[in-house]
Amino acid sequence: MDLTATTAGLASAAAELTRLLPGRTLDPVLSGVLLTATAPGLVLAASDREHGLRLARQAIVHSEGAALVAARPLAETLRALEAEQVRLVVEGPRLAIRAPGARFALPLLDIELHPGVPEPPPAAGTVPGEELRTALAAVAGAVSREDALPIFTGIRMWTDGGRLTLLTTDRYRMARCVLPWPGAALDVLVPASALVDLARRLDGPVTVHTDADRFGLSWAGDAFSTALLAAPFPDDRVRGLLRTEVSGTVELAADTLAAAVRRATPYAGPRGTVTLTAWDGEVRVHSSDPGSGESEESVKAGVSGQHHTASYQARYLLDALRPFADRTVLMEQQESLRPTVFTGEAGQVELTHLVVPMRSPV
After folding, report:
1. Per the count of CB atoms within 10 A, which of 23, 68, 107, 343 is most buried?
2. Positions of the region Disordered (predicted)?
3. Percent of the residues in the chain that have a pLDDT greater than 90, as a whole number
4. pLDDT (tens digit per residue) in 60-82
């Protein structure tokens, strides 16, 4: 294998693959990146047996071939190079990384022992990358980090009536995003971590792939796939939370409320509690703690219906408001500890975020 390519393009691809791979593994081939050079260009690929990622990059291929090398040293070497172009050449048991006046050589790993990088399953439909990127970013904040409950570490996706719904919850909040869907039926629970990290790369038309065992995305010559989460998701219970009985609404600029919540956070105490009180034409943002002090700030808002007072974890509020940046947000409040619903103006992509108020300390 012998090729010349743009250093920056290879460096970014190697860095993406490094993030996918496990930090430590007993199987060294799983720490490797598979380089395949053919006439159309270079494909960099990696797999940890659960996820697989293929990234296509332009290259002038002098000699076709394939090589497997450790991903992190490759990424670190490429990132440190200042040369605009780099040459990758297999030289005996090494992959030589050549730049003007410099040569670095990585030992080749046994390519025969690598499990391979699976192709994505069959295509189900195609959506604009910007819409899917927005949807994934919007629901990312409500994904659980508790591995003991794996069903809540995933993104629930299903189609209904020409719409694709993405939903996440950690049991204390929930995020839902709905976008137009022109494809086939889809009903899956996808691990969130790698997918959310990948979302910022999505651009142009993105094809969604799925079968009974795997889920995948492909775009602009790149492709990602992952095993599905097999545990049953509590659909009826979760969707029941979306059936609301609203008794009061607050409409205001999301950025203004978020800024006030951030200013109140240093006074929120160990529980991180911020209290919102709806009043005539305003929302009062209040925090207090014996050890931290107290803060109170009024934010202009349109208030209708019952005036509610509810306490929330500050970081949950900020996560709920973030997808509505530069927009007006509508807070729909319910009685007791039923979730507060955050929605925005109608558009191609519909965003809904639910946050459960905190119980008042006894």
Report:
1. 68
2. 284-305
3. 80
4. 999 999 999 999 999 999 999 99
Q: Which amino acid is at 358?
A: M
Fill in the DSSP letter of residue 82.
Answer: -
> What is the span of the domain harbouring residue 156?
123-239
Residue-level pLDDT at 210: 96
Q: Does the residue 68 lie in any domain?
A: yes
Number of compact structural domains in the chain: 3
What 3-state DSSP class applies to 9?
A: helix
Phi, psi of 240 (to 5 degrees): -60, -30
d(C-alpha 216, C-alpha 224), whole Å: 5
Task: Please check whether residue 202 is in contact with residue 217, taking contact to mean a CB–CB distance below 8 angstroms.
Answer: yes
Q: How far is residue 188's CA from residue 215's CA, in Å, rounded to a whole number?
A: 8
Tell which residue, 128, 135, 184, has the closest CA to residue 350: 135
Q: Is residue 345 part of a domain?
A: yes
What's the whole-number average pLDDT of the chain?
93
| pLDDT tens column, 306-347 | 999 999 999 999 999 999 999 999 999 999 889 999 999 877
Residue 23's pLDDT band (cuts 50, 70, 90): low
Query: For residue 362, is pLDDT > 70?
Result: no
pLDDT in tens, 83-141: 999 999 999 999 999 999 999 999 999 999 999 998 899 999 999 999 999 999 999 99
> In which residue are the tokens 């900020």 written?
318
Three-state DSSP string of 157-194 = EEEECCEEEEEEECCCEEEEEEEECCCCCCEEEEEHHH
Q: What is the pLDDT of residue 21?
A: 78
Residue 212, Cβ neighbours under 10 Å: how many? 7
Asked if residue 318 is part of any domain, the answer here is: yes
Question: Are 109 and 127 in the same domain?
Answer: no
Distance CA 197, CA 151 (A): 18
Q: Kindly tell me the burial class for residue 195, based on how many C-beta atoms sit within 10 Å of its own C-beta (0-12, 13-18, 19 or more).
A: buried
Distance of CA 316 to the CA centre of its chain: 17
Q: Which of 192, 220, 239 delimits the end of a domain? A: 239
Statement to judge: residues 69 and 148 lie in one domain: no
Single out the residue in 113, 136, 166 at which a domain terminates.
113
Q: Is residue 151 part of a domain?
A: yes
